[in-house]
Design brief:
single chain; 171 residues; mainly alpha; 74% helix; 0% strand
Length: 171
């Protein structure tokens, strides 16, 4: 119990919860500050690392975001969210080979998450592996038929496979 006039430091859970609330409200700077506070107390706080990685990935410092997701994977080597997020960063910088490997590992941990398969399809398509890309995006659509980005990617891949009629139906 605190004495009158003393401030009580928030718990780790309270810091993370507040960080998530700030992030959802569009206050990324405040969310990042709270994540850093949580990491000062516990450098291995997975949720703080993950959220700070997502916030950082939204900015220009992709290397810092990659380092944060790599720290997550050092703690939990097969964490599907960290694998997927790191894969998306690699995809953004054009390293589709590495991204594919990360997406495939993420899919093992979260086989029902459509964005993983959509992102896998995008990287496969960019490497010219159209049939594998089509299968990945179709898997994303089987998981979530309303996933509009996957519909667009499906149409793009079908067009690249010289299937214009099927492509027109995909959009």
């Amino acid at each position: 119990m605190s004495k009158q006039g003393e401030t009580v430091a928030p718990s780790q859970a309270a810091l993370i919860l507040a960080a998530v609330e700030h992030q959802r409200a569009g206050r990324s700077a405040e969310a990042a500050d709270l994540c850093r506070q949580a990491l000062e107390r516990d450098p291995d706080q997975l949720q703080a690392l993950m959220l700070l990685g997502l916030i950082t990935a939204g900015g220009a410092d992709l290397a810092a975001a990659e380092a944060l997701f790599a720290r997550c994977l050092a703690l939990v080597p097969e964490d599907p969210d960290a694998l997927h997020n790191l894969g998306r960063l690699r995809q953004r910088r054009g390293d589709d080979v590495s991204a594919i490997a990360l997406f495939e590992r993420a899919a093992v941990g979260k086989p029902g998450l459509a964005p993983i398969f959509n992102d896998l399809g995008v990287s496969l398509h960019r490497l010219g592996r159209r049939k594998a890309a089509l299968l990945a995006v179709e898997r994303a659509l089987a998981i979530d038929a309303g996933f509009m980005i996957a519909h667009c990617n499906h149409g793009m891949i079908l067009r690249a496979l010289d299937r214009p009629r099927d492509a027109a139906c995909a959009y």
